[in-house]
Design a protein that fits this description.
Number of domains: 3
Largest sheet: 6 strands, parallel
CATH architecture of the largest domain: 3-Layer(aba) Sandwich
CATH topology of the largest domain: Rossmann fold
Strand content: 5-15%
Helix content: 25-40%
Structural class: alpha/beta
Radius of gyration: 24 Å
Shape: globular
CATH class of the largest domain: Alpha Beta
Length: 484
């Protein structure tokens, strides 16, 4: 069997390049994509395999099957027109695995672009069933006329190709837990201007990881990845580093840099990632695959769900999870979160989820390495008891507190963010950059930490002592404020 994987490369050698932006581009800005793609490769049986998004440049007739490892591709923002052009004339059978619809809430239907819907309708016509991550994605596809779907979760949930899974729980509540955290951050500026439950939870993760001296597993964080790659703390002296210090609530830049070097990890090899997660006792975070890597290593993990994609898969697999809204209502202790995680029947329902996933591969006639399923050794009364305890726990949570209001000093920044599409920027003039708002010149000192709301605005020009640093700020500000 010769397989064409319509995917990123999973070869660790392809991520040895120095520039962070290039490494992230190769894994589509999230190392979690490496985990589920590698998991699917471990599960399928093949003679040869080729990975690329460029079908026409490579002779598709040289392959027997096309495999599409999917993630949150069904969303309102992505345009898959180029992908449509790549696959519309290909007549190979296809396997679509792990598709998820991403929306802020599962109560409403997401509205993808027309090219995205066309892409998945083409795939639906060439496969027996599309494997989706949860019931919400199945409902969205049915809404748009695609009904040949099966809910399977994610290939990463079956990393070891075994019909059962066992987590290492500690019975001694007083024993100190070896902890690891993970979070979802692409832009640094959003954490200083947004007050949603998700952003409150993210701030809690960074600050508690630093305060407890726990490890942090990075997947898309540019500044920390640069410190780990170079071993240098130079970036912490820049405006982004100052903002990072505030996010972690570190007393000094040196202390933060030392923490990242000692406790930070980022992986471009999925096998090493899973193996590394076995050293912890408990993992908490908002990263779906960051928590899944821990579970596959036998380490209990609690996923903080913050959108339809994370919620639907956590509910289907019954992996330990807590919504960001519930998480933000009170300051949980680590011990409470650990005991709450024990109330989920992830281990007892796993054999049935495995059986379902294996049936999905069989019905699509793709050779695989999964052994036959085993009888689930479940205790329904135990699962019901834990479910009732979990419901009582959530019911007794205090009512949700109103989101904190932005500080007064950031009102101008918030206002400017709302109207950033009317913002345009002029060329460099000496050592200052000038911005115009409805034709009114505004001088800025560019504190680049992610988005326009993180800049400091002044009525008078600000002279920079370091022209090179100002040039860097200018380049990043140009990108942040360009018309979209």
């Amino acid at each position: 069997m010769r397989l064409f994987f319509f995917s990123i490369s999973t070869d660790p050698q392809d991520y040895s390049i120095p520039r962070f932006e290039e490494r992230m581009a190769r894994c589509v800005n999230n190392t979690g994509n490496l985990l589920y793609t590698t998991a699917l490769m471990r599960q399928l049986r093949y003679d040869s395999i080729f990975q690329s998004y460029h079908v026409k440049e490579n002779d598709p007739t040289a392959y027997d099957f096309m495999v599409f490892p999917m993630s949150n591709h069904l969303n309102s923002g992505w345009k898959l027109r180029r992908w449509v052009e790549e696959i519309k004339d290909i007549q190979l059978p296809v396997l679509v695995v792990g598709l998820g619809a991403q929306n802020d809430t599962p109560q409403t239907i997401v509205h993808p672009k027309s090219s995205t819907l066309r892409f998945f309708k083409i795939l639906a016509g060439r496969t027996r069933t599309i494997g989706v991550r949860g019931l919400y994605t199945q409902r969205v596809l049915a809404h748009y006329g695609i009904h040949n779907t099966r809910v399977i979760g994610c290939p990463s949930a079956f990393w070891h190709c075994e019909p059962q899974i066992k987590l290492r729980w500690k019975d001694d509540a007083g024993e100190k837990l070896r902890l690891a955290f993970n979070g979802t951050r692409y832009e640094l500026g959003q954490f200083f201007s947004r007050y949603s439950p998700r952003h409150q939870a993210e701030r809690w993760l960074y600050q508690n990881a630093y305060a407890l001296g726990a490890d942090y597993i990075y997947q898309s964080e540019k500044q920390e990845a640069e410190i780990l790659r170079t071993g240098s703390m130079k970036i912490l002296s820049e405006p982004a580093g100052i903002a990072l210090q505030k996010l972690y609530q570190a007393p000094t830049a040196e202390a933060l840099g030392q923490y990242v070097l000692e406790h930070g990890h980022i992986f471009y090899d999925a096998s090493q990632w899973v193996q590394h997660m076995g050293r912890y006792d408990f993992v908490i975070g908002t990263r779906l695959h960051g928590c899944m890597a821990a579970l596959q290593a036998g380490t209990p993990a609690l996923l903080i769900t913050h959108d339809s994609r994370t919620q639907e898969m956590a509910e289907f697999l019954q992996m330990p999870h807590l919504s960001a809204a519930a998480f933000a209502q009170r300051n949980f202790s680590i011990e409470t979160l650990y005991q709450f995680s024990r109330s989920f029947p992830f281990e007892s329902v796993y054999p049935e989820k495995y059986r379902n996933y294996r049936q999905f591969l069989d019905e699509n006639a793709v050779p695989h390495r999964l052994p036959p399923p085993v009888h689930a050794d479940t205790s329904p009364s135990r699962d019901i008891e834990l479910s009732l305890w979990r419901e009582a726990f959530l019911k007794n949570l205090p009512k949700e507190a109103p989101a904190p209001k932005p500080p007064q000093k950031r009102l101008l920044e918030t206002f400017l963010k709302k109207i950033r599409y009317f913002f345009w920027h002029s060329r460099m003039r000496g050592e200052q950059t000038r911005y115009y708002l409805f034709g009114i010149p505004i001088h800025t000192r560019m504190m680049r930490v992610g988005d326009i709301e993180c800049y400091n605005f002044w009525r008078k020009p600000v002279k920079a002592t370091n022209s090179n640093l100002l040039s860097n700020w200018h380049a990043e500000a140009s990108q942040a404020t360009s018309l979209r």
